[in-house]
Amino acid sequence: MSVELRFLSWDAPATAKVREFLLTQELTEPVDLARDLIVVPTRQAGRRLREALALHCSSRKTALLSLRVVTPAFFLRPEDEAGLVAAPLEVAAAWADVLMKADLGRYGGLFPARAPSQDFLWALRTGEMIEVLRSTLADGGHSIAGVYHDFSAVLEEKERWHDLADLEIAYLERLGMLGLEDPSVWKLRQAKSPGPPAGAERVVLAAVPDPTPLMVRKLEHLAARIPIVVLVHAPEALADCFDGWGRPLPAKWRERRIEVPDPDANIILTGPPSSQSRKVLELMAQEAGRFGPADVALGVPDEEIVPFLEADLAGAGLITFYPAGKAMDQHPLAQLLQAFRDLHSEGDYPSVSAFMRNSDFLDYLQKKHRVPASRVLEELDKWQNEHLPQSLDDMIRAVKRPARAGTRRAEFPSLAKAIGVIADLMHAFEAGDMATSLRSFLQSVYEFRTLNARKPEDSEFVAVADAIDTTLRRLAQGPLAALGLNREDGLEIILWSLGKKPYYPEPEDAIIDLEGWLELPWNDAPFLIVTGMNDGKVPDSRPVADVFLPDSLRRQLNLRHEEDRLARDAYLMTSLIESRRSQGRVCFVVGKTGASGDVLKPSRLLFQCGDAELARRAERLFGTPPEARAGHPSSISFRLEAVPPPDVPAGNLELNRISVTAFRDYLECPFRYYLKHVLGMEALDD
Predict the structure, then answer these.
(1) Which helix or strand (DSSP H or E) is residue 590 part of?
(2) DSSP character string of 488-499
(3) Within 13 Å of residue 629, how many CA atoms lie on the same side as its CB?
């Protein structure tokens, strides 16, 4: 067996060229590609390839029967995460347990300053930082201990690596006590003697520009058993610009010119993300005669621009889809858990106020206990200003205390009932084991929530609920039960795990996808607009002062480094341009500042041009963006209905005299005067 390198040319996007390779002959019967394991760079690339193959078969009056498309992660993760290999949750918990029990005085190289507070949250975050290092090293075929012993001559801080190696040993021992194998150890072991994927008779590496060294090592072993075809989205004339696995060679791409057609029109300097979003709409309007919305591809290497694009395109009637997914900890269900965690661990007034303002809890109050949300919030504001509560316990004692004569306890009936409900929920949570109690809490709050599988928001709710349920089962019944996490630590690790898991909404009726840099070669739309063409995003770069792995050490360890990323992104930018050079257009939008006002640098790839163009382009891209806005005639967006509400006292509307203070308020702002002196409104602040 061997590895075959095939060049597909780039006269069309990667999707079309890979489809042509897989379906070479004229189709006369249903297509079955089950024997091929097709590897694509991202999840979104796989979705586009499936669509392209299915549509091609449909246009030929046949069908696509079976297809196996995976991403590179398929080769680097355990196939059965429910088995003996530790899941991310178990890895995090084991690290936290080791770090909380460690004598930090023994690890002066890693913790040279004053010892931090060894609480669970610190241990969780520190363990995550070390695990990121271990995963990065494993992708290059290394472990921390291996680096310390084999590369000690080039390590600048040997004491730090010595401490890391000792902690790694303690962590692996802890996992062994739990009956689990570490996933990085599993990856290194599997790379040495991998078996062929079940049912695969050929592996097709389809336009994957940056397979990791560990993945390449695994594929080299597989090549002795089954054929491997590496597809490169480039013409064969550039064969000397790639290695045997289709990776761009830094020496060839570092200085190679990237010829942008009509650079004055297609390289555009703008301001902050909101300005980039407006420029996208302007470009789409300019090309409306040639390209409709379905002919437009939008690239967002900088996710900071996504919300601006979503809002502006929605305002233009264009529904978008962001395939990178959403973090589960941003879902309302996770936000309810966050508010409950804060209430349980802090119990101060801000956490009470935040929990009581949670929309799901307010909905539960209204449906289960007939307590109107508006009344609860109104009374909460008044209570805070009149009683200055410090904690939940203060509020519980106050509502239980018998009312004294002349007090205004009757003004807070809804708030008193809501505080009683919260007290009952907290008591129930403390009564049983953490997993059972938390399930009971969520079941109570969502008792009246009905789900419809056809609604995207309900499908998202189910995905997050399933993730929470899985985590609770692992904490209660799996190896983690032996660690004996308390309630607060259990809540903390549940929320941590949700922050690491994305969920993928379905692209319901989406017209335009907002895609990342690695996904753009697979979008076959003829008009491509790439926003966020700034250094640090394209090319993707890491901080120069990496805590553990500076770029110089990455080179020594044969890990992906700055020049590798520069070569990959120079190649990808070239392929985006060349696949649309004859029929289409590519625009690169550069931001001058970020959303917070920080100054951004243009992508260095934009300066890989001829000397005659370089100075002029640098002057333009480091200059001031032309922020011209279209003028709109003044208009009334809505009419103010100047009719007072019926509960305003008649005396407030018929004024015969006015005090000096009220007159001063009127001179300062008639509208605020109306709110304060006529409607009787007053400012409230938590």
Answers:
(1) strand 585-591
(2) HHHHHHHHHHHH
(3) 9
Write out pLDDT tens, residues 500-525.
888 887 777 788 999 999 999 999 99
What is the b/e burial string over 613-643, where b = at least 16 CB atoms within 10 angstroms of the residue's CB? eeeebeebbeeebeeeeeeeeeeeeeeeeee
- From the list 439, 469, 471, the residue with the least C-alpha distance to 90 is 471
Q: What angle do CA 442, 446, 448 make, to 5 degrees?
A: 155
Q: Which H or E run contains 502?
A: strand 502-503
d(CA 526, CA 586): 8
How many H-runs (helices) and E-runs (strands) does the chain carry? Answer: 27, 13
Burial of 137 (0-12, 13-18, 19+ CB in 10 A): buried
- For the record, the structure tokens of 317 come out as 């009637």
332 HSE (CA, 13 A, CB side): 14
Phi first, then psi: give them for residue 52, nearest 5 degrees.
Answer: -65, -45
| 210, 173 Cβ separation under 8 angstroms | no
Backbone angles phi, psi at 85, to 5 degrees: -85, 130
Distances (CA, A) of 448 to 223, 267, 363, 444: 56, 53, 9, 9
Q: What is the 3-state secondary structure (H, E, C) of 5-42?
A: EEECCCCCCHHHHHHHHHCCCCCCCCEEEEEEEEECCC
The CA distances from residue 215 to 138, 158, 680, in Å, are: 10, 28, 70
Q: Among candidates 534, 523, 530, 537, which has minimal Cα distance to 565?
A: 537
Residue 162's H or E segment, with its range, is helix 158-177
Residue 544, H or E segment: none
Contacts of 363 (CB under 8 A, 6+ apart): 373, 448
Q: What is the mean pLDDT of the chain?
A: 89
Checking DSSP bridges between strand 527-530 and strand 320-321, what pairing results, if any?
unpaired
Count of residues making up the chain: 686
Q: Greater confidence, 648 or 238?
A: 238
User: How does 289-327 read in b/e, with b if 16+ C-beta sit within 10 Å?
Assistant: eebebebbbbbbbbebbbebbbebbeeeebebbbbbeee
Q: Are 526 and 581 in contact (CB under 8 A)?
A: no
Q: What is the pLDDT of residue 628?
A: 52
Using CA atoms, how far apart are residues 542 and 550, in angstroms rounded to an integer?
9
Angle made by CA atoms 501, 508, 31, in degrees to the nearest 5: 90
Q: Which two tokens stand for residue 393?
A: 């316990």
pLDDT of residue 544: 44
Burial of 86 (0-12, 13-18, 19+ CB in 10 A): buried
The answer to whether 126 and 510 are in contact (CB under 8 A) is no
Rg of the chain (C-alpha set): 30
Helices (H), 432-558: 434-445, 456-477, 487-499, 551-556
Distance CA 442, CA 281 (A): 43
The C-alpha atoms of residue 280 and residue 285 are separated, in whole angstroms, by: 9
Report the DSSP pairing between strands 202-206 and 326-327.
unpaired
What is the end-to-end Cα distance of the chain in Å, rounded? 71
Q: What is the pLDDT of residues 537-549, one digit of tens each?
A: 999 876 544 778 9
Say what the pTM is. 0.85
Determine the Cα–Cα distance for residues 665 and 674; give it in Å rounded to an integer.
9
Helix H or strand E segment including 630: none
